[in-house]
Amino acid sequence: MWQEHKKIHRPGPHAWHYVAKRGAARNVGRPSFKWTGSLRPHRVGPDRVLPDDIPKTDYYTTGIPTSEIRSPQNLLPGTAGVVEWAPGSEGESGIREACRIGRLVLDRAHAAVDVGVTTDHIDQVVHEACIEYGAYPSPLHYYDFPKSVCTSVNEVICHGIPDRRKLEDGDIVNVDVSVFYKGYHGDLNETFVVGTASEDRYVVILCLYTMQRTPAHPPALVTAISVSLSSKRLIKTTHECLMKAIEYCRPGAKYREIGNIITKHAHAQNFSVVKAYCGHGIGELFHCNPNVPHYANNKAVGIMKPGHIFTIEPMINQGTYKDRTWPDGWTSVTEDGKRSAQFEHQLLITEDGCEVLTKRLPSSPKLFWE
Ligand SMILES: [Co+2]
Question: Is the pTM of this model over 0.70?
Fold first, then answer.
């Protein structure tokens, strides 16, 4: 009898819970926290299964990326250990292929973003697309990260965990896809506007109409519109920051200069630049040297050489640059609860410039300004 009772109340493998201990534990109740904005964590679904024929990372079973921790690439100072991938080498074409698959997976996720869709569903789309292409979704179990993609909504800066919350009209959501394919990682992200808030003209007409009808009481709609317009300016500026930084990249260019370029453009629009998270080297390892800060006057070491492969992924905020981390140990939010956007590309330094390995394709769903 007692056994029966226990069986019923023990959380089964299919239960949905709140993430705790940086992904290593689950809670039945939502933890208390001084939330910085209006977003809250929601329940996170059970582990997704990977078929046997998908080659696994070293952290899949342990949660610890041992090869990354032990790599001389990360133990040597500055860019001393950074790999210079030879043109046409197996490594270079392997990374190129991982980036192309990452792009196809992100485009699938983009197409799935809509009002009423949960971020867990986006995770499912990413997970299944990865399997279809024969790739391992790199975030899965990386330092115990519980899901296959990061989804960062509104005030979330990065590393949001896909959960049961439904996306709402006017939300913004960043989807950060990384894939591990035939031994190499590809990493990219984009920020999307959710729903009809992307249809400016419709919204403005509705606003004017409403103000005319009830001038004493310009309602929530006006707030919604200003939120929408400033979110869009944030997203577009963030994308411009990334593209301006990419234009600068070539052999001989200084890694530390990237932060000056990004900050100059963000500040011109009265936005701030997150300091806590940086771009990174990537290849056989998910994260390695060089370290690529996005903020001005940073002390990043080294110059770009042909064959260097790394990411640039500026996180730009409407208010303060300062971040806080939720009790789940992963979700990074703005300290003032205002919104944050991000775009990321993975780049290869060539003889005379740089190549965007994660570039958008003719088949990529359009961004709102396109
Ligand atoms: Co990255």
Answer: yes
**Full set of structural domains in the chain with CATH:** 54-356 (3.90.230.10)
Q: Residues for the chain: how many in total?
A: 370
- 275, 297 contact by CB (below 8 A): no
Gap between the Cα atoms of 220 and 214, Å rounded: 12
Inter-residue long-range contacts of 323-326, CB under 8 Å, 24+ positions, other chains counted: 323/157, 323/274, 323/276, 324/36, 326/33, 326/41
Q: How far does the centroid of ligand 1 lie from the alpha carbon of residue 313, in Å?
A: 7
d(CA 280, ligand 1 centre) in Å: 6
Give the Å distance between the CA of 264 and the centre of ligand 1.
Answer: 22
Over the chain, what is the mean pLDDT? 92
CB 288 within 8 A of CB 280: yes
Residue 47 Cα to ligand 1 middle (Å): 23
At residue 201, the 3 state secondary structure works out as helix
Per residue in 16-65, pLDDT (tens digit) is 999 999 999 999 999 999 999 999 999 999 999 999 999 999 999 999 99
Distance 187 CA to ligand 1 centre (A): 5
Q: Kindly tell me if the per-residue pLDDT of 200 is higher than 90.
A: no
Q: How far is the CA of 171 from the centre of ligand 1 (A)?
A: 22
Ligand 1 center from residue 277 Cα (angstroms): 9
Is 341 within 8 Å of 235 (Cβ atoms)?
Answer: yes
Task: Output the CA 312–ligand 1 centroid distance in Å.
Answer: 7
pLDDT above 60: residue 249: yes
pLDDT score, position 11: 52
Q: What is the pLDDT of residue 221?
A: 63
Could you tell me the CA-to-CA distances from 108 to 14, 126, 130, 261, 369 in Å, in that order? 26, 7, 10, 31, 19
pLDDT of residue 77: 82
Q: What DSSP string describes 253-286?
A: -BTTHHHHHHHHHHHHTT-EE--S--EEE-SSSS
The Cα–Cα gap between 212 and 21 comes to 52
